[in-house]
Specification:
It is built from 25 helices and no strands. It is mainly α. The longest helix has 20 residues.
Length: 461
């Protein structure tokens, strides 16, 4: 598909606030050759498609070209940016093989071209023929798009070509006229418009649009330009706890601690996906203001959304006489199947050694929980530690793999420490001497043991 011609002498859409325009020096032919070379050369590299779970190696080269386009856009050369982005879109799609894009990394790159292309389109003016050619190109691309690629990320380009900076439909009165997916594209277009206005330092226009399109960005911009009281007043309209968190954090940086805390407290009752982060951020602030009940509430919300031993300890410290009533509720919140480490931490915190041991013994893989519990209960259950540690060490040694010997030596060290707590140096010395004789022809094992735990000349340990 040929690249539509672009009006190189075009001015930004809103002339009153536009930056001084320059003619682009971008060569479509040079960039097309560069992208084709990257795609061609990658086919002869072993990691062309990457390992399972990793992106193909050439993606970073394509991303560098995309970044170059975005730099042109930031510098005011939207024409040059659009040339580069169209070349990237065409050539990567022509080369695309959905069956080989195991994790969708290439599809993700292609989809990521949609928003910068939209912003470039909003920053140039094209003649009627150029506009129509670009529109036809994008429509053809969408018609032939591989099913692995999410079309909506590129459909916003068509919306930009159709509406530009014109007034969009109003949700409150025209919701039934459009599909929900179209309304989402309108939202994406508004975000692209805001990005352009922000890049061009058109603050008044940004505020005017953001007030209706994105209240969160509107408030942050008010705070950035020093209209703090207006930002605080507008923040009462926020209903997403993630947006509330970012505004509260900004207010704290501006020294408005009480306003930040008040906003965050309201956020605890709002919808969103960052309730845990909000509560974790708020709780210590409440403590610093000596608001114990609110601190307890924030810590409890943080714990209920994502239990951890750190939050458990803070609740224990703050709850006072109510701890005995609170503790069983906290333990019930921890699912042993999904969070055995947290439950083990709680058992260890409360010196419930046998409960921690029982939990660790159920965990067959990985052995990190078994290691944690063994290290913690050594002074209290040395016999169990000796039994488990020697069993784990033996299981690693018999595999005759030198890469496993350091781990075996770590387990032997745990047994050594447990013998020490029992006052059984002689038993340990007998065990390790026998082990060294048994595996005398394994120098890598001998080295791992001596390197990890050198024998003391004075004690024989």
């Amino acid at each position: 598909m040929a690249l539509p011609a672009i009006s190189l002498a075009a001015q930004p859409k809103t002339a009153a606030a536009s930056q001084e325009k320059r003619q682009t020096q971008v060569s479509e032919q040079a960039y097309r050759k560069q992208v084709k070379r990257i795609l061609k050369q990658s086919r002869y590299e072993e990691d062309y498609h990457g390992d399972w779970g990793s992106a193909p190696a050439y993606i970073s080269d394509l991303e560098a070209i995309q970044k170059n386009a975005e730099q042109f856009l930031a510098a005011g050369d939207a024409d040059g940016a659009l040339i580069i982005l169209q070349v990237l879109l065409e050539e990567t799609l022509n080369d695309y093989d959905g069956e080989m894009d195991y994790d969708g990394d290439v599809a993700s790159f292609i989809q990521g071209l949609g928003m910068p292309m939209t912003e470039a389109i909003l920053s140039v003016e094209m003649g009627g023929s150029s506009h129509k050619a670009l529109q036809d190109l994008i429509e053809d691309i969408l018609d032939d798009l591989d099913e692995v690629i999410e079309a909506s990320d590129l459909e916003v380009v068509l919306i930009a070509l159709e509406y530009g900076w014109k007034q969009l439909p109003v949700k409150e009165t025209e919701w039934e006229e459009y599909e929900e997916e179209t309304w989402m594209l309108f939202d994406d277009l508004q975000q692209a418009r805001l990005n352009v206005l922000e890049r061009q330092n058109r603050t008044d226009e940004f505020l005017h649009l953001a007030q209706s399109a994105d209240m969160h960005l509107y408030i942050l911009k008010l705070l950035d330009i020093g209209r703090v009281d207006d930002g605080i007043a507008a923040s009462q309209e926020l209903e997403d706890n993630g947006e509330i968190l970012s505004v509260a954090q900004k207010l704290r940086l501006l020294g408005k601690i009480n306003d930040a805390v008040a906003l965050a407290e309201r956020g605890l009752d709002q919808q969103g996906y960052r309730l845990h982060e909000l509560a974790v951020w708020l709780a210590p602030l409440e403590e610093s203001l000596e608001k114990k009940e609110m601190a307890l509430l924030a810590h409890r919300i943080a714990y209920d959304t994502h239990p951890s031993i750190e939050i458990y300890r803070r609740l224990k410290r703050l709850s006072g006489v109510n701890w005995e009533n609170l503790r069983p509720e906290l333990v019930k919140k921890v699912n042993p199947a999904n969070m055995p480490d947290v439950l083990a931490d709680i058992h260890l915190e409360e010196h419930e050694w046998d409960a921690a041991i029982a939990l660790a013994e159920k965990q067959t893989w990985p052995f990190t929980l078994l290691e944690k519990v063994a290290d913690a209960v050594t002074p209290h259950r040395p016999d169990w530690v000796i039994r488990v540690a020697l069993k784990q060490a033996d299981a690693l040694i018999v595999q005759t793999q030198s890469k496993l010997y350091p781990a075996a030596a770590e387990w032997l060290g745990r047994a050594r420490k447990a013998y020490f707590h029992k006052g059984q140096a002689t038993e340990w010395q007998a065990y390790i001497a026998n082990l060294r004789i048994t595996y005398a022809r394994r120098p890598a094992l001998q080295k791992a043991i001596v390197t990890t735990y050198p024998v003391s000349k004075e004690t024989g340990w």
